[in-house]
Amino acid sequence: MKALQLIFRYIKYLFRAKSKHDAQAPFLYELITEVINKRTSDNSCEKIETLRKELCKQERTINITDFGAGSTINNSKTRKVKDVAKNSAKNAKFGKLLYRIIQFYKPKNILELGTSLGISTSYLAKADANAQVFTFEGCHETGAIAQENFDKQRIKNTSITLGDFNLTLTEKLKEIKTIDLAFIDGNHKEKPTIAYFKKCLEYANNDTIFVFDDIHWSDGMQNAWNYIKAHPSTTLTIDLFFVGIVFVKSELSKENFTIRF
Ligand SMILES: C[S@@+](CC[C@H](N)C(=O)[O-])C[C@H]1O[C@@H](n2cnc3c(N)ncnc32)[C@H](O)[C@@H]1O
Description:
CATH topology: Rossmann fold
Order of helices and strands: HHHEEHHEHEHEHEHEHEEE
Number of domains: 1
Strand order of the largest sheet: 5-4-3-6-7-9-8-10
Bound molecules: S-adenosylmethionine
Strand content: 15-25%
Low-confidence stretches: 69-74
Number of strands: 10
CATH class: Alpha Beta
Mean pLDDT: 94
Helix content: 40-55%
CATH superfamily: Vaccinia Virus protein VP39
Structural class: alpha/beta
């Protein structure tokens, strides 16, 4: 039922989607042509994909603590690394989109909620060695493998904060002080997603970019996306179906744009 609903939503998205020819504002036109529609093939990205392939074969098991499912310590279950790599990580197409966003807009302080094995984090970190990536993960065993993956790739500009976002985010934000890009990819539920958006907004600046994962995944996530689009701080939003991009630049007019990706 849920899969059918998602297919139906995807078809609606395809009908709604516009192209660069519909973009009037120069900022939006540039975003579509220079970032969204560009293709990336560089060595750093290929190395991340080699790592993904290795992880997709790993039989090693880990105890998963899933805060996203709503429970805490008792929700531990054993999973193979290869299953986590196949089911949790954003695919190469979206990893490369994050990579291009960073190379184009050059955010310096990057926050990621939901490290998992560190695949999307690797894209965030490798896009700009001068940026600092602050990534958050609730499951200690998964986070430990992510750290191994950063070490393997000699990624130095990333730090992981372990623990439930509800307990770690507020304190860490006080330390970070300002966020230039936030990728929200954990705890895909309505209320937490809105709460993370509002909390991160307190540390946003005029150039901050938000990227939300799975905005159409459930009714709750669609409600959260609608809330974010309607928020007074939000100006331009881009719906790419599997992710939504949000700008808060005050000089942009409020516009919600859907683009086929
Ligand atoms: C979809 S995965 C992240 C995938 C990763 N961004 C990638 O593309 O490679 C979401 C992660 O968020 C973590 N998570 C979900 N809810 C959380 C919470 N409330 N606190 C801490 N971590 C949480 C889960 O443990 C999981 O590893």
